[in-house]
Amino acid sequence: MRAAVFDSGVGGLTVVKSLIDHNFFDEIIYFGDTARVPYGIKDKNTIVRYSLEALEFFKNFDPDILITACNSVSAHALKELRESASFPVVGVIEPGVIAAQKRLEKGDRILVIGTRATISSGQYQRLLRHQGFTNLISLPTPLFVPLVEEGILKGRIVEATMDHYFNGIEPDAIILGCTHFPLLSEALKGYFGEQTLLIHSGEAICDYLEQELGITPGRGTPELKLFASESPERLKEVASRWLSSDR
Ligand code: DGL
After folding, report:
1. Ligand 1 center–CA 114 separation, angstroms
2. What does the pLDDT read at residue 149?
3. Where does the chain show beta strands of DSSP type E?
4. pTM score > 0.90 for this model?
5. Domains and CATH numbers, the chain
6. If you measure from the C-alpha of residue 170 to the centroid of ligand 1, how many angstroms do you get, rounded to a whole number?
7. What is the pLDDT, as a whole number, of residue 242?
8. Each residue's pLDDT tens digit, 48-102
9. Can you name the residues that pair with 90 across neighbouring β-strands?
10. Is the CB–ligand 1 distance for residue 202 below 6 Å?
11. Which residues, including other chains, have CB under 8 Å from residue 145's CB and lie 6 or more apart?
């Protein structure tokens, strides 16, 4: 089985890591639109246009499924991608909400963090409310994206950024609604405490593939083909760091 994984840049490698850990696919074709990242500050029309261009690229590989690792794409372009693709297209928002449903109580305080595009779409909030979760705080936290890209995953700058965004917030769970944020898991646990549950798109999508789509894990290690619209060597360098880390 061949999966296409789309992201605005390098961040979607966190989802690839989960897919590889669970061995869902024989082959993974990853495309990061590194020339035009970030998508999280762009408007819907632009995100849809870029996503449909990425779809044209993926069509050359005849994938069995397209996974949009990018939350901003999942929030704004899923419908358009589905209308134009001849294979299933899966985003990360619905799987994240299903993971919340399975792991949280309805009264739990849930903090949803993501890019401006993802949070302003209201998609997480709408689906969570629909499932009966009422205690929601949603926050755009875009400063974390360049920090992660710089490899700054803990320490003073990360803590100051958390103080800036999270002052007075005490969540029971955090939905990591951006590809980059799983890399801050340790820092977030350090800030909020070990008891805070983190919902990671990569892990959520693996459960979704198995439980909702019936795709079985446990194949061999997939062949990973990495493509980028700019500096593919940087994508490969980040992949060799992130995919070998234990986060
Ligand atoms: N991949 C994006 C997301 O998950 C984060 C980076 C960006 O803004 O493009 O929303």
Report:
1. 8
2. 85
3. 2-7, 27-32, 65-68, 89-90, 110-114, 136-140, 173-177, 197-200, 223-228
4. yes
5. 2-91+203-242 (3.40.50.1860), 93-201 (3.40.50.1860)
6. 25
7. 85
8. 999 999 999 999 999 999 999 999 999 999 999 999 999 999 999 999 999 999 9
9. 67
10. no
11. 11, 38, 40, 115, 178, 180
